[in-house]
Amino acid sequence: VASDPAKTIDAFQPLADYLAANLSQFGITEGQVKVAPDLDTLARWLKSGDVDLFFDSVYPVMIMADTTGAKPILRRWKSGIAEYNTVFIANISSGINTIQDLKGHTVGMDSDASTSAYMLPRAYLADAGIKTVLQTTPDAQVTKDEIGYVFTHSDENTIQWVLSGKVAAGAIGLQVYNDIPEADRKNMTIVAQTEKLPRAMAAVRSTLAPEMVDAIKNLLIGINQTDEGKAILVKFEKTARFDEFPGGADSALARIRQLYNLVKGG
User: Fold this and answer.
1) DSSP readout, the chain?
2) Do 208 and 51 form a contact (C-beta atoms < 8 A)?
3) Which residues of the chain have pLDDT under 50?
């Protein structure tokens, strides 16, 4: 799921070609990259068999597991990291220093398909006993006991909206924050941080043959052992490697389900 199909295809195609070239024993002749505009589309593709393998953060993978039976198979070290979390950022001149200060204000979040810029921050607020309300515009009125949230449609927009004062705060991944140029970051303050979750996952459709699943896992786990594989991973959004989930895939999904239930209840 991505908002820029051309950019995504460019990053993913070398990996798709690599897998296809090494899965000929299963009748695979080419690797095709399909970019879904939303989770509903991805779910249809998984159910129909149009998609065999996909990569996403833990929240979308959980949704696909629950709606289509998709199975996470490996942890992906996207951008070189195994785990990540969310930071709430505010303009340093806003006077906002704690989560409680955000009551009556609006927080910018990327989209409702994001783990770090939607599910984690909303679960954090729900766990703190704070009600969140979706707003259609950043300047909509929010009651003094609630926190509004509005979709910015990209982390870059969230950052700019915080800097310009369009929103009182933003929710982004910690690594996204660390990559902000120092000239802008010095004008921001971190209000709060969430717990950590796996950065990303590789998952397969429920009906994929177990033999092919095992072959895909072995290829992904070993891909960083060759110069060719390392180059493919760099192109693939600076992925460092793939490995097994330390506590098992089920435990990773169990935690995000708990957070999801917090959000539904809040």
Assistant:
1) --S-HHHHHHHHHHHHHHHHHT-GGGT---------SSHHHHHHHHHHTS-SEEEE-HHHHHHHHHHH--EEEEEE-GGG-SEE-EEEEEETTS---SGGGGTTSEEEES-TT-IIIIIHHHHHHHHTT-EEEE-SSTT----TTEEEEEE-SSHHHHHHHHHHTSSSEEEEEHHHHHTS-HHHHTTEEEEEE---EESEEEEE-TTS-HHHHHHHHHHHHHGGGSHHHHHHHHHTTT---EE--TT-HHHHHHHHHHHHHHHHH-
2) no
3) none
- Contact (CB, 8 A) for 200 and 55: yes
Class of 5-81+199-246 in CATH = alpha beta
Please tell me the predicted confidence (pLDDT) of residue 1: 83
The answer to whether 5-81+199-246 and 83-193 have equal CATH topology is yes
Do 34 and 12 contact (CB within 8 A), yes or no? no
Residue 266: per-residue pLDDT: 58
Q: What backbone phi and psi angles, to 5 degrees, belong to 78?
A: -70, 135
Instruction: Choose which CATH entry (3.40.50.720, 3.40.50.300, 3.30.390.30, 3.40.190.10) describes domain 83-193.
Output: 3.40.190.10
Residue-level pLDDT at 60 = 93
Whole-number pLDDT of residue 264: 85
Tens of pLDDT, residue by residue over 60-92, are 999 999 999 999 999 999 999 999 999 999 999
